[in-house]
Amino acid sequence: MSLVEKALRKLQQSTARRPLRVDSPSAAQVRVSIQPRPPEARKNRTPAPVPSPVGQALVIDTAALRAAGLLPPQTEEHQLAEQYRRIKRPLIAGAIGHGAARVKEGQLIMLTSAVAGEGKTFTSINLGLSMSVEKDAHVVLVDADVAKPHISRLLGVADAPGLLDALRDADLDPERLIRPTDVPNLSVLPAGTRSQEATELLASTRMQQVTATLARRDSQRIVLFDSPPLLQTTESHALAQSMGQVVVVVRAQFTPQPVVLDALKLLEGHPAVSLVLNQSLASANTAYYYRYGDGSGAEASR
User: Fold this and answer.
1) How many domains would you assign to the chain?
2) Is 20 within the bounds of a domain?
3) Distance between CA 115 and CA 266 in Å, rounded?
4) Is 202 exposed, middle or buried (0-12, 13-18, 19+ CB in 10 A)?
5) Signed CA dihedral, 78, 83, 84, 89: sign only
6) Is 53 a domain residue?
7) Helices and strands per DSSP (H, E), number in the chain
8) Hey, which end of the chain has fewer CB within 10 Å, N or C?
9) Phi (first) and psi of residue 140, to 5 degrees
10) 257-265 and 3-12 are packed helices; what angle lies between their axes, rounded to 10 degrees?
11) Who's near 31: CB < 8 A, 6+ residues apart?
């Protein structure tokens, strides 16, 4: 029995929430890069609206991302791209209602982990790339790991205004801080200028206003927030209050079961919490579906 199965079976005895299903990857290294779409397919897609972005479009340097361990070796791309397609389907359904009822504020999706080193930033980037090839989705990837803004640094916008600046200044439109990229339908909102009051800013009424703006300006938009770890920061707790969906990344054979349970306890009461098992050594033909939500309790099925 896997770590997450044990955790969820224990949680099943004490929780009763509505389910949200997320397919768990099962390859040896859960890393994925999306294959480029043919030029003719790109021509038929509706570009995401970009309201007066700051500066030029960001270039997604795949070589730099791969060197940083945030994209897989090219030999693993196809298999893992397929796995991310499975992961994103229920999240998209919860966000924009394709084939299922929408989750309240489901366009706002937080990706986090219990502790550092479990692959939540890797998952954020690759999930964003996978979602960006959807015909009916415009993706904004928000670097909300304000303590360690890894995404902002890698993309060369560590010093650019971003989320924290929009939270400090009520007159600053967050839309103007979103940076388009050279990947169709994928934009980035940097972390912004660091603040000693980051937790308070993320827990503020202004944060509710900013997330509402990001979600409602475009009915096809999905906003992915790369969050700090749950057990190592207070920012992640504040951020979760504004999210419609939360995805917890768990690294297989790495995270102790009590640590997983402690992290999930911090999300008790949230209506849509899902788990993604990262770096599993299970066979690629083995599919686990982890559900943790309001209605029928937590469960793991095969």
Assistant:
1) 1
2) yes
3) 13
4) buried
5) positive
6) no
7) 11, 10
8) N
9) -115, 120
10) 50
11) 69, 71, 72, 76, 80, 119, 122, 126
Domain that holds residue 194: 3-38+58-301
Q: What is the pTM of this model?
A: 0.78
Q: Is 188 within the bounds of a domain?
A: yes
For residue 133, tell me if it sits in a domain. Answer: yes
Does the CA dihedral 13-14-17-19 come out positive or negative? Answer: negative
Give the amino acid at 206. Answer: R
Tens digit of each residue's pLDDT (9 = 90 or more) over 184-226: 999 999 999 999 999 999 999 999 999 999 999 898 999 999 9
Cβ-in-10-Å burial (0-12, 13-18, 19+) of 68 comes to middle
Record the tokens describing residue 168, joined without a space: 């400090």
Which has the closest alpha carbon to 6: 236, 271, 277, 270? Answer: 277
Q: Which helix (H) or strand (E) holds 96?
A: helix 77-96
Domain containing 125 — which CATH number? 3.40.50.300
What token pair was written down for 21? Answer: 């299903």
Residue 28: other Cβ atoms inside 10 A: 16
Residue 203, both tokens: 């827990």
Q: What is the pLDDT of residues 90-123, one digit of tens each?
A: 999 999 886 678 899 999 999 999 999 999 999 9
Confirm if 191 and 226 have CB atoms less than 8 A apart: no
